[in-house]
Batch of 2 targets.
Target 1
Amino acid sequence: MIETKQEVTIKFAGDSGDGMQLTGNLFTDNTALTGSDLATFPDFPAEIRAPAGTLAGVSGFQIHFGSKKIFTPGDQYDVLVAMNAAALKANLNNLKDRGTVIVNEEGFDSKNLRLAKYEDGENPIENDSLSDYELFKIPVTKLTKECLKDSGLGTKEQDRSKNMFVLGFILWRYSRSLDSVTTYLQKKFAKKPTLIDANLKVLKAGYHYGDTTETFTTSYEIKSAPLEKGTYRNITGGQALVYGLITASQKSGLPLFYGSYPITPASDVLHLLAAQKHFGVKTFQAEDEIAAVCAAIGASYGGNLGITGTSGPGLALKGEAMGLAMILELPLVILNIQRGGPSTGMPTKTEQADLLMAMYGRNGESPLPIIAAQSPADAFMTAYEACKIAIQHMTPVILLSDGYIANGAEPWKFPNAADIEKITVNFAAAKKANENGAQNGEAFLPYKRDENLVRKWAIPGTPGLGHRIGGLEKEYDTGNVSYDPDNHELMTKTRAEKIAKIANFLPEQKIDIGNEKGKILVLGWGSTFGVINAVVNTLIEEGHEVSSTHLRYLNPFPKNLEQLLNQFDKIIIPEINTGQLATLIKAQFLKEVVQFNKVRGLPISKIDLYQFIKEQL
Amino acid sequence: MTTTIANLKAKDFATDQDVRWCPGCGDYSILKQVQSVMAELGLNKDEVAVISGIGCSSRFPYYMETYGMHSIHGRAPAVVSGLKLANPDLNIWMITGDGDGLSIGGNHMLHILRRNFNVNMLLFNNQIYGLTKGQYSPTSEVHKNTKSTPMGSIDYPVNPLSFAMGANASFIARSMDRDPKHLKEMLKRSQAHQGTALLEIYQNCNIFNDGAFFAFTDKATKSDTALFLQQGEPLVFGAENDKGVLLDGYKPTIVSLKDAQFSKDDLWMHDEQDMFKAQILTRFFDEPNADDPQYFPRPFGVIYQTNRATYEAQHKDQIEQAVTQKGSGDLNALIRGGSVWEIG
């Protein structure tokens, strides 16, 4: 029997060595091809290989998909796949009432139960503690080994294939084709045909297990979602960000230079860019965070599109150099894939707590534009725009993303490259020397500005433009060192005004959903986009007077923001911090706001936000 | 590719800015020799970039009529790395000091040396913090009395050239502000080297550490304390060229050439290409003491030089190789990816 469902949330959970991330990603790609809308949330342990079988070692991958618009990876899951006792224990609390638990029986032997800290003699899949749920026990390890007994693979390699059994089973359960996984395995193990055969065999065994075992009477089907017409692909936030940067490089004609030091969760940007050298992308794994940003500054000085990327602790280290780039007035993009802080904090968990550091975390008066991505696919245009602002306004730009966006995935109606606007670059023109070797015309003024207070970019190697720049205060126009009090004040104000004027180039802020005036406006930024949309949609369906708007430009704000906020009786700002956007809004507009703050290292849950807004109605 | 220009003069490389080092500072001599050498070599100033960190020496770019950046403390090697990758044809001169390059920037110094970007790096060593008014530096001698060490410094000093050998530098040399001829020769050798050329220059800070190197620069003592290296020549020093360095296995020994026991042919012949000998030479780091018969004189000249692929050339090769293998990047294909589906 095939039953049709509107939406489903599945959590794959296992030991960090069980391959749950791969299982989740392969299932996601397969889901995307069916035309369902989806959102994912990988949740890994901090340690690469925490001791096997322990609670600390549990790795999870959550996917929410459906035949309707999907905004978040889901608060609670309909199905929990648990490869061992620890995975069950760590994830059971978010399983929906009457939800389904699928377990690998061998993951519940006495050793695993002990490591998961169950009481002596207590086995949750044998006693009646799961009686409120639908429980399926599958001897995954045993069946996988049986399947591979003649494969010639060692015990370890056989064991490693058990995620394919689970994947095959889940694909059967949701009436899928095995094609996308088959193609993946053929490509991945092109040089090791034994492994293709082995994995395919296990995958099919899992698939047929569902089909032939009488325990499973029902499989499910989710129809495609009513997404906008067009061609779609599945994309992670990390990929979208990198493709946006490369697009900006191609559209501006500037070679992309990326200086970075490995840090979770920003390292993927370095990996993904390093794989795109055929786009002329230059990656430089620097010796530390400071060297990474300084190398990017050097590259920008040399006429490349200089970019550096990091996460919170790295942004703290880059502060002085960002100030240098700011006073030099060179283009630079600083990516901050935020994570839980302070200090080392929670590297693999998400948070939005670096907004005020981005805004104020440098010595002296050093304002910088800040732009934030709101979803995985949105990171593409956010990255492109950050580069465009940096190049056209000769300034460092901070792009804020976070672990939740970077690791999450969603379907993307991707643009045609030819339709993306070119980015014009304002280089200073070379000056020709006369016969005596002297320069013609007036002396070159490196800090002469246009009507937007933007100076020209003069690249070393250009004939006749030799000039010196540095971190010392500069004289207006000439850029020579100056300690003159009036000049310092003029330069400080000019640099600030230059950033403020960027607002003239930004689109006006619009209401995302709901009326343009009313009782409540939910104002968000960054990765809370999905949850705010889901909750506000629900409230509107229930007949409540609620609207929402999401900020991409955090400094400067869009010019009409104050006016837009003034159309509502109450502004609610949900954030995964203790109120950083709220602080900026209050300071800039002297406006009362209602804060909804969570700092749990997790995305804000729909239920929590829904209840909070309802109480505010 | 770089171009050369005929009939340049040192002043063609001087800016209209007032030079603001203390009168009598060793930096003046270094600035003058750099400008002279650039003119003599006919460097095109549009293709030269002078990049510095922070400190007295790091004001250098403001006085050079070329491209230049006065960056932040200790980080010039990183700025240089990015600039060289952006434009491998630029002729980059990095200026640093003992505090900038070996204290706050010690980390970056290590990495630029091992990576081997083709740049000239001038390390002005005056064994003191000048800009901050006289604290001991990482190259100051132990027991040094300064404002921050009223009872004497207990920091053991770093040996910059041994450090550089440990970092796998491809070129290391030493010179001094008070010997313009030698300094110019070393600047030319640095420029000729393809790779990171580290030139340590002993520079007198006449305000906070006057005379730190007089033992090596004063006529009275110089011949016994300083050893001027020449490729293929024996290691000879002393007022009458009467002392030599003999290498017995790994062990260097000072011998007298006065009696007939040793001749110049017995001595250690300088070979810049010999890494093992270079390591020993950098260890000639005793406090100057001309009265000690076994005192090892301080070597000046090119201590080590080897040819090794530059970082920027290898970086460029990989990009070219990627283009050869995959073809020039196709933006549409990148954005589209592998699997797509239609809705509508």
Target 2
Amino acid sequence: MKAASHRTTLATARKVVGAILVVALARWVSPWLRNDRKVAILALAPSIFAVALFIYIFIGWTLYISVSDWNRPVLDLTFAGLKNWRRLFTDPRFHIDLRNLVFFAAGYMTQCIVIGFVLAALLNEKIKGEAFFRTVFLMPFAVSAVVSGTAWRWLQLPSSGINLLIAKLGFENIRPLWYMHPQYGMLAITVMGAWQFSGFVMALYLAGLRAIPDELREAAIIDGAGALALYRYVYIPMLKPVTFTAIVLTGAGSIGNFDIPSIIGTGPGFATDSLGFYMFEQTFRSSRYGLGAAVGSLMLFLSIPVVLPYLISVLREERE
Amino acid sequence: MQHLLTRSLKYAVLIAFTVYYIVPFYVMFLTGLKPLENISSFEMWQLPSSLDWGGFREAWSHMDSNFWNSVRITIPGAIVSTFLGSINGYIFAKWGFRGSNAILFLFVFGMFLPGQGILIPLVWVLQFFGLYGKIAGLITAYCIFGIPITSLLFYRYYASVPDELVDASKIDGCDFFGIYRRILLPLSGPTFAVVGVWQFTRIWNEYLMALVVLGNPARAPVTVAIKNFSSMGVIPWNLQMAAALIASVPTIAVYLLLGKLFMRGLLEGSLSG
């Protein structure tokens, strides 16, 4: 009985304290609420806080973990200097991954940009069924990279898929190993990546082409420009900003390459391994957090020179 | 004559690429339709002897809970991040303050950075709040990492709404939320659809964060389930293909039904303007 009344008193006390706190907070905030400009800042504050914490503070945190001694399941933030970085730079797998990054970027960026540009240029020629082609070309972009990896793993199986078609065409001696190639396996992965993203680049170029005024085309034709000259001297120079966008998007995508290698596996001699997958395995499979953080930090460092000039140029354009 | 030749050449190239984009879908469908005893890597292109949906049914029985996990993650994630983006975009476009442009820049910059740079602290913080390994934790992460893109898309749209409209309603006595509700919200239907579709697709297809936060097979979304399917090595090809195709149905349906919105979202999101 006594205990029960004690509990009610406590609950009442808590309510009173709560009410006082609410009133105090309201008093403190209410002058702000009368000023719309301050309300705006207040409404934006949670998002700023969340992005600051989850992106920028997390980045600093990752950098710090990369110089700590945390390489086992138990948290250990003892400062270890450049130990993880030294270990990273002497790991043969890391060297292979850097080579793979070069292979992937070269293959992926070229395919996306060349295929994207050619298809956009063709679709810009008053093609019947343009909407159909556009829909089909962009469809892979709507599915997950995981799906792309799964389908292409079957299609590129050396004993099956594409190689069967090649044999049917009469070239029985040509049997590429695709993603199982011990050295160039990564190039096979670029086919899977470009299958998904080249349609997107096509859409970018098509929008760019549509934005070029007709008068420009007509003027060039009156000046006697043929189809090739039109592209060489008018379209390609005018599409430079689109090409810049495509380079940055595919470049950033190359650095972050993870989904497809994770489906295919690291392949013979790590031929289809990527920095992102290496980071994932070291961190979440082997509990080498310090080493994983070093890989993550390195990926950030690689991205900055790709992204920053682009954003600055976009910002400058938007100001004008 | 030469005109006809170049014209047919153009169509030939376009049709060749149509085949290239469709073949993986076709092979997934074809292989999924075959019963297990008909699966042989040497007969990949052969049509199934009879229509057999058994493969699809069995794949579904292995992944239905993951499919619903994806629904439970994607729908709240897309709705919340779209609303957050709308409010933020409104503030950036109509209530800009000193430094607000720099903040928007930092938002967008963060969008391009690889996820591996923040994964370890993410796990740590989610664990701290008891959200690690839970669907709510993954939704929270998607909402926060969705803030940059959704804010940017809404900012670009709201910036195109004339300031005079806002000023006029201020004179009429509308406050911060009044302007949003009476002026901008009624104009934002199409943008909500564009951003919503974009976020739906992105969250449904996301893989890295899902793998790290919800690796547990029972709670995992469908992308992680596909990965488990294809890396176990004992799961037959017909089930893998059927599962991958089932996992793609929602986003392909949204893409085919709302293709225009999808296209607009990706063009505006890519910053090429």
